[in-house]
Amino acid sequence: MSLADDLRLLPWTGGEGKPCYLAGDGTGFLSRLADNIEATQLGLADDLIEEAQEVLEGRSWTPGELHLLAVQLTEALTSVHRIAVSRGARVHVPAGEDVDVIGGQGDGDSMA
């Protein structure tokens, strides 16, 4: 396994919006901090989904409310997508097993 295989995509970005990675075994302070931030981001996304459902069911919104909701949903979706990419990269798939991807095709490569 190479160093690149051991890198974790963190739930925050660095300067100029560049991705941040952490090398390690996943038990250190920064790993726990990243886990906590991911949990918070997922909880906020869940709350936002409920809020969006209420706004849309009420059918009485202003253009400003819809714009704010779209901005917040975009931010939440960006965070959730980043978490999914990070966690997907850390899922161990036994060698020789295909990984199903959207479209139902696997590439045969194992993920580490």
Walk me through this protein's architecture:
- It is built from two helices and two strands; from the N terminus they run ββαα.
- It has 112 residues and is mostly helical.
- The chain has one domain (3-90).
- Strands 1-2 form a two-stranded antiparallel sheet.
- The longest helix is centred in the middle third of the chain and has 30 residues, at 29-58.
- The N and C termini lie close together (8 Å).
- The model is unreliable at 102-112 (pLDDT under 50).
Note the main attributes of this structure.
two-stranded antiparallel sheet; elongated; 112 residues; mainly alpha
Spatial order of the strands forming the largest sheet? 1-2
Task: Return residue spans where pLDDT drops below 50 for at least 5 consecutive residues.
Answer: 102-112
Indicate the mean pLDDT: 83
Going by helix content, strand content and strand pairing, the class is mainly alpha
Layout of SSEs?
Blueprint (H helix, E strand, L loop, with lengths): L6 E7 L5 E5 L5 H30 L4 H28 L22
Antiparallel strand pairs: 1-2
Short description:
The protein has 112 residues and is mainly alpha-helical. It has helices at 29-58, 63-90; strands spanning 7-13, 19-23. It is built from 2 helices and 2 strands; from the N terminus they run E-E-H-H.
